[in-house]
Amino acid sequence: MAHWGYMTTNGPSTWGKDFPIANGERQSPIDIVTTAAEYDSDVLGSNALSTNYTPESEVKLVNNGHSIMCQITKKGVLTGGPLGKDEYRLEQFHLHWGAEDNRGSEHTVDGKMYASELHLVHWNASKYSSFADAVQKPDGLAVLGIFITPGVACNQFKVISDNCGKLKTSGAEMTVDTTLDPTLLLPSNTSDYWTYLGSLTTPPLFESVTWIVFKEPVEYSKEQLLALRNLVDSDGNHMQDNYRPPAALKQRKVKKTFT
Ligand SMILES: N/C(=N\S(N)(=O)=O)N1CCCC1
Ligand SMILES: [Zn+2]
Known about the structure:
The protein is mainly beta. It contains five helices and 15 strands.
């Protein structure tokens, strides 16, 4: 099986061959049509979305051939909002980005693409025993989506952007002896978000993700975005445009926590 990727020959339009769920009923990402999103106070009312992350004492970075990923080793928990009382454990974070600032995010907002999108991937530790156990369950995963826009540098992201040069080739891994607090990767406003039931945005595209996409973008500097674009993917090309375009909404409703 040719390895999936983002080129014409192995990109999102070809994934359905090996992963038929690509045309499923709850695929991600989606275009968020802001006027169609339904305000739902009890998504926020009952218990607000809350993160309780433990800062990483060292940072494990991996170029996995289609993104730059930071493996989380500490116990960090996401709960509340659409997740109710279930506690979702932070497993890893990674990003998607474009070759230029005008594209790169996976979710779009009224058709607008951001330059990049950061994903914090969590699994339901209240119901399942591991990420691998949870990854195929309909309530198994929760991913925080943070839009990235060019601007001032994000200090907490420096440990990743400053080390991309040492992670150029696919499969490269490194451990950086520095702390990282995932909370500081989030936008200042974490009350305003859209949420809907979706999937992994890369193969195997499992329909197991409760998506929470924050309205407020976070700024990364031009240099930080350039560092991502200089990574090399599993085909030996510059890792750029590693985003899946929006999938059909089908019979789903997007909820929002703000008016
Ligand atoms: N596609 C994924 N996350 S994402 N892009 O849907 O957040 N993953 C694949 C395996 C682990 C996470
Ligand atoms: Zn992702």
